[in-house]
Specification:
The complex is a heterodimer of chains A (113) and B (120). With 113 residues, chain A is mostly beta strands. Chain A is built from no helices and twelve strands. With 120 residues, chain B is mainly β. The chains are: A mainly beta (113), B mainly beta (120). The interface between A and B is medium-sized, with 19 and 23 residues.
Amino acid sequence: AQTVTQSQPEMSVQEAETVTLSCTYDTSENNYYLFWYKQPPSRQMILVIRQEAYKQQNATENRFSVNFQKAAKSFSLKISDSQLGDTAMYFCAFMRAGNQFYFGTGTSLTVIP
Amino acid sequence: GAVVSQHPSWVICKSGTSVKIECRSLDFQATTMFWYRQFPKQSLMLMATSNEGSKATYEQGVEKDKFLINHASLTLSTLTVTSAHPEDSSFYICSARDSWREVSSYNEQFFGPGTRLTVL
C-alpha cells in the first residue's frame, strides 16, 4: 500500500518570501510519479508540479521547485517569491503505474500581505 | 486545454434517496476515470477506478453496491449514491485520464470541479 504523509497541517509565509512544504511517502514500487496539487477555495484541483521517480533532476516550474530524495522517499515543494494567489491547500500525491492518485493529508498555506 | 465537467455542482437530497453524479471529459476521450471523496478539511480518498465498457474497480472499504459506477462511453462516467444517508455527505471529485495525451510515460489526467452532496 502507498502512504503519503504531510507533517505540516498549516503554514504561513510573508508575501515575496520563500516557503517549503514537506512530504514523505512510502512505497515498494520502483516506477512511480510524484505531484504537488493546489486546491484553492473553489475546490478545483490545480497541478503545480510533477516529478518522475526515474529522473534524478529535480523538477522546476517557474517559482515552484521540488527537492526529490528518492532514497529517503522525500518530496518537498519550494515556493519562491510567494504571492497572495498562492494561498490554498496543497496536496502531495503519489501515482502508481495504474494511474491512481494517493494524496497526502494536505498543508494549508496562507500568504500574508 | 483539457476540461472535465461534473454535474451537478451541488445537490441536496433526502435520506434514503439515490443521487447520480456525472463526470464528463469535454474535449478528449477518457477510457479511464477515477472517483474520489473529500470530507471537509481532509484529503481526497480514492473510491474507485472506472473503465469504459467494463466493471469499476473499487478500493478496499468502499461499498460497490452503494456507490454504483457506470462508464458507458469514452466521455462519461456516472457515480450513483444509492440510499444516501447523512454520512454520505461529502465532496465528490472525478478525474479523467486522456487516452491519447502522454506526458513522459503516463497519460495526462485532469480533475473535475467536484460535486458537493448534502444528505438531509
